[in-house]
Design a protein that fits this description.
five-stranded antiparallel β-sheet; 2 domains; 5 strands; alpha+beta; globular
Length: 155
Amino acid sequence: MQLGPYITLLEFSTMKKLALIMSLLSMFSFAKAAEYSEGQVWSYKTRIGEEKSTVQINKIEANERLGKIYHISLNKVKVKNPHIAGGFSSELPHFPVSEETLKKSLLKLVGSAAPNPDYIEGYNTWKSAFDAGEAGIFTISVAEIVGFIEDTINN
């Protein structure tokens, strides 16, 4: 069937499908850009053996130079730590990370929670150093951060 001099019914149907796909993709892009908020708890791409670990977003702040800075805590990790009883840390209370880190790492929103009160001490220490130009933020994946912290603690 011809819908005018230029488009057949089959072509019209294909164009409708293409328009639908494009609108869904644009909605997905918008959702990805706006999906992170304080209090969210996410599953993430973990290291082997830490699959139950989660990321909690405690605080989000804007920075002119770096964009949004996300202050996260990690729960249910297994970080070798010879400085504590039992030899392992299961919580890491504060990391300042970029949105790039979250995009590389987060998989699924699994819940929400009040900010981890233990993040505040680390945040205050970081904030003082950051304001003095002596600290930055992580841009690597969360799993890479955990590995970096474990290496630092043990060397």
